[in-house]
Amino acid sequence: MMNNLQDTVLLHNGVRMPGLGLGVWKVQDGDEVAQAVKSAIAQGYRSIDTAAVYGNEQGVGQAIHEALEENGLRRDELFVTSKVWNADQGYESTLAAYEASLNRLGLDSLDLYLIHWPVEGKFKETWRALESLYQAGRVRAIGVSNFHVHHLEELMKDAEIKPMVDQVEFHPRLSQQALREYTKAQGIQLEAWSPLMQGGLLDNETLLELAAKHGKSVAQIILRWDLQHGVVTIPKSTKPHRIGENAAVYDFELTGEDMARIDALNEDRRVGPDPDNFDF
């Protein structure tokens, strides 16, 4: 069980990844993203998740450098994730995209590099590039994002290395049970994006009731549910008080009955695109 913000999960290659991190999707490059990242690190966050397509890697990198200095931390105390965008998929282009991300971030390596979406006909070559980066010691862990079970099965037919992480949309309306069971059996760590359903669950009656019961916010109830399911989660916020609130989920525990009530909210409902049907 995770007891504090620095607690980690063990990936199948022996690398430790924080159970909770900061996501920066739709956070503007420059001051906005820099302030969010610096606030998170100052408040104890050790995991930052960005992507090439977010257009804010430069601001994230700058904030990381400043935050390390301000907080007396070493680079290896942080866990930094980025992702290769769809237009860059393919073997050579993925290797180039990795260098470009590192360049924007001002880092020598990443802790985790993900394939952002399963682009048909391309994701296997992209994976081969990730494997070679990993084998060359250029990245500590590699994984995928938005992969269904059948995408993972297809990838692993030819893969030398099994993905360490699958980052997917995950929240009480989309609890991904089949994928959770599959990744658990395969030793692949599931990670949640959009864990709060982009604010779409904050007035849910069941969650409001549980929030009142535990003296917590609805967001804290949902994030605690993620962690108790063993799902790594990266809520996004730009407000320092909200960043702090999202991390204050280690001083209470949901009961088995609480967990079941939240599980029952599942409707297989997405706020993002379906990985079987996207056109970008």
From TrEMBL:
<dbReference type="InterPro" id="IPR044500">
    <property type="entry name" value="AKR5G"/>
</dbReference>
<dbReference type="Pfam" id="PF00248">
    <property type="entry name" value="Aldo_ket_red"/>
</dbReference>
<dbReference type="GO" id="GO:0016616">
    <property type="term" value="F:oxidoreductase activity, acting on the CH-OH group of donors, NAD or NADP as acceptor"/>
</dbReference>
<keyword id="KW-0521">NADP</keyword>
<feature type="domain" description="NADP-dependent oxidoreductase">
    <location>
        <begin position="20"/>
        <end position="267"/>
    </location>
</feature>
<comment type="similarity">
    <text>Belongs to the aldo/keto reductase family.</text>
</comment>
<dbReference type="InterPro" id="IPR023210">
    <property type="entry name" value="NADP_OxRdtase_dom"/>
</dbReference>
<dbReference type="InterPro" id="IPR036812">
    <property type="entry name" value="NAD(P)_OxRdtase_dom_sf"/>
</dbReference>
<keyword id="KW-0560">Oxidoreductase</keyword>
<dbReference type="InterPro" id="IPR018170">
    <property type="entry name" value="Aldo/ket_reductase_CS"/>
</dbReference>
<feature type="site" description="Lowers pKa of active site Tyr">
    <location>
        <position position="83"/>
    </location>
</feature>
<protein>
    <submittedName>
        <fullName>Aldo/keto reductase</fullName>
    </submittedName>
</protein>
<feature type="binding site">
    <location>
        <position position="116"/>
    </location>
    <ligand>
        <name>substrate</name>
    </ligand>
</feature>
<dbReference type="InterPro" id="IPR020471">
    <property type="entry name" value="AKR"/>
</dbReference>
<feature type="active site" description="Proton donor">
    <location>
        <position position="54"/>
    </location>
</feature>
